[in-house]
Write a structure and sequence with these properties.
Length: 205
């Protein structure tokens, strides 16, 4: 069956099946040894907004659900602050497996897993991409022709960038990772303000 004739569900399931069997991943052995699950993504297949983090943590790897720990609770609260529910958006990461000790993703891991992310974006065809943290911000900016705009996340968070995808125009908003709000209350306020930027965009799409 051609990709065009497959439903979004079938196409996304194909991605899941490929990642489950991804033995060439340097994280595959760590996943199987710890009985972790790959964390593919969760939410609406017709979402207008995709949230992209960098990699699953321990809670996520144990459940297969992205952003299900303390940072996930913050994300849910931020979504609620702009009258959105998790089921209305799509949430995923660049890496689909947990790196040991929550270390940063390696360039090789990003190179291996990012084609799956790109396929997810092409299938869902969002109007807005919101990245959560520095790694996903830089990846998306490089991927969508915004390399010249790259700067520290402390300078770019909450800004809106227009870019184009194969399926149409995209708005891109870099955000701090929700985990920062767990350690710094002023960052929580910053995230809340940045989510208001997202809210303003949603009313226009």
């Amino acid at each position: 069956m051609s990709q065009k004739n497959q439903s979004k569900y079938d196409q996304l399931k194909q991605i899941k099946d490929e990642i489950v069997a991804l033995k060439e991943s340097p994280l595959y052995e760590y996943r199987t040894k710890n009985r972790y699950k790959p964390v593919i993504g969760q939410g609406s297949h017709d979402a207008k907004i995709i949230f992209i983090g960098e990699a699953p943590g321990k809670n996520e790897a144990e459940t297969g659900v992205p952003f299900c720990g303390a940072a996930g609770r913050v994300l849910d609260e931020l979504l609620a602050s702009i009258n959105l529910e998790r089921k209305e958006v799509y949430i995923t990461n660049i890496l689909k497996d947990r790196p040991p000790n929550n270390r940063d993703p390696s360039p090789q891991e990003i190179e291996l897993y990012s084609p799956f992310l790109n396929r997810q974006i092409e299938i869902i065809q969002p109007k807005v991409i919101a990245t959560l943290g520095r790694f996903s911000m830089e990846f998306i900016m490089n991927e969508y022709g915004l390399e010249s705009e790259i700067a520290k996340i402390s300078l770019l968070h909450g800004k809106t960038f227009q870019t184009d995808a194969d399926f149409g125009q995209l708005q891109f908003v870099p955000l701090f990772h929700p985990a920062v709000a767990l350690y710094n209350n002023s960052q929580r306020k910053t995230l809340e303000e940045d989510f208001q930027v997202l809210s303003a965009i949603i009313t226009l799409i």
